[in-house]
Amino acid sequence: MLLEAIYHRPRLNWSYAYDENTIHLRLRAKKDDLTEVYAWVGDKYDWDKSKELVPMTVFTSDTMFDYWECEYVPPFRRLKYGFQLVKGDEKIWMTESEFQTDRPANPNRLFEFPYIHRGDIFAPPAWVKDAIFYQIFPERFANGDPSLNPENVQPWGGIPERDNFFGGDLQGVIDHLDHLSELGINALYFTPIFASPTNHKYDTEDYMKVDPHFGDTDTLKQLVKACHERGIRVLLDAVFNHAGRNFAPFLDVEQNGEDSVYKDWFHVREFPLSIDDGIPSYDTFGFVAEMPKLNTENEDVKNYLLGVAEYWIKEVGIDGWRLDVANEVDHQFWRDFRQTVKGVNPEAYILGEIWHESSPWLEGDKFDAVMNYPFTDAVIDFFVREDLDASGFAAAIGKQLSRYPLQASEVAFNLLDSHDTSRLLSLPGGNKKKLKMAAVLQFTFMGTPCIYYGDEVGLDGGEDPGCRKCMEWDPNKQDRDLLAFYRKLIDIRKSHPALRTGTLTFLDAGNSGKLAYERRLDGESVIVLFNREDSGVTFRLPVPEAGWRDLFTGEIYKADRGTLSVRLPASGYAVLAPYAL
């Protein structure tokens, strides 16, 4: 066995408490190298009587490694442990300090999980597992109160530009809640709604004021109340990495320079403030002069922003925050942010915008989840760009699942497009078959799916600003077939708990466009099949149940002596559940 490839460390995603009683242990090994792995576990104060070998299984793989896992319920919420590694007749014991051929004589040099403390358990809000999110860019969703329109408002449905306005507002959202309820949405994520001179509102000038072109605090209260009455949660966008150029403290710094009482609210390298060859003399988001970076290590800044986070939860009852540019803010601020938000509403969802590997933010002391762009990339690379075959897709997803504790993956924010990317329909040049395959995977996968407004009626658009088109409300111009598809897809996810919280096992992921996986929860199994190929293919899968039904088409399949055969056309998919024949 290749011992150099074997890895484990205590805590993080390798050894963690899943709940108050259960510990998950993981170990990495070279792909297809080990034939068996056992966790050697016991209580450190009663080792001789409590020690036992617990079988581990491969819960996921990537191109290089297998990731073995087991769960164990220690009798006294503490654990000493090592591993027994098996390859054929070869057996090696792994301790905290070394590999050895003989079983360790005592537990002194084994790994340790000292104690499961309730306060240390990473416990995202349970409701997120059942959430179907819908992202709204308020300026482009619906114009419900024309009296709020900016002076230079454009006719609804015009070409989106970086600096034009169409009059979307919060009343427009209220007016169209029926559409969201009928679609099956039970959670909304809004891009920023606070006072700002731009259409996107990511350059905040007043964090305590709803943008007057969107409404006011009373309108927001009405919206949240109406959503809650329908069972819809509301997530707002917190832009705490940077403010806008019209933010009062920054205006004071511009006016008074080093004499400003707010000079330490920002990261100023040189006074007076200036811009030299496009580079401001103060830190910003990117190099955007209109977005000065906030110094979140400054106590006054921290207290102000934490007050903002607390205020809107208390004042209007929002259900959580999405955190913009979250990886560029210091970790201690986010720890304090979590304490503040959870202190007001323990069930609030804290979602960070991070586009890369995010384990430092998913240890239970900062975020509940991140926007799962690695998932987005893998899905698009497989279905749209076809840069990956099925095995490459499974490996990319396997690597992603290995990085985080299970409870983080269960509430990961799985999106396929957003206000920052090309729309899903535009990526394959309007190919609805590819869009549907990608969406079926999104809604049958581990994590929380999110629809970007308008995808369900066929809205297209390239990179910003093209992806920020006005929502299409004319039924004659909506893609009604696509709308029916999304309604059915959401209903399938809601009707089958295994699709929300079940285990994930790849059944067919070879060097082609054929992909099959199973979601299983207790006794419920759902099998999902995709054929990305340009011609029909046949799946042959070992199954315990005799009868299966396609949840989309209603077609019935019968297994023959434990083998289920399903033929899919080009760009076809199927979601199968057991059916009593």
UniProtKB/TrEMBL annotation:
InterPro entries per the record?
Answer: GH, GH13_cat_dom, Glyco_hydro_13_lg-like_dom, Glyco_hydro_b, Ig-like_fold, Ig_E-set, Malt_amylase-like_C, O16G_dom_2
Q: Which GO terms describe its molecular function?
A: hydrolase activity, hydrolyzing O-glycosyl compounds
| High-level lineage | Bacteria, Bacillati, Bacillota, Bacilli, Bacillales
Provide the alphabetized UniProt keywords. Glycosidase, Hydrolase
- Highest taxon of the source? Bacteria
Q: Which residues form the Glycosyl hydrolase family 13 catalytic domain?
A: 135-493
CDD domains from the xrefs?
AmyAc_CMD, E_set_CDase_PDE_N
Pfam families linked to this entry:
Alpha-amylase, Alpha-amylase_N, Malt_amylase_C
What name has this protein been given in UniProt? Cyclomaltodextrinase
Sequence similarity: Belongs to the glycosyl hydrolase 13 family.
Q: Which GO terms describe its biological process?
A: carbohydrate metabolic process
Please name the SUPFAM superfamilies in this protein's record: (Trans)glycosidases, E set domains, Glycosyl hydrolase domain
**Native species:** Paenibacillus stellifer
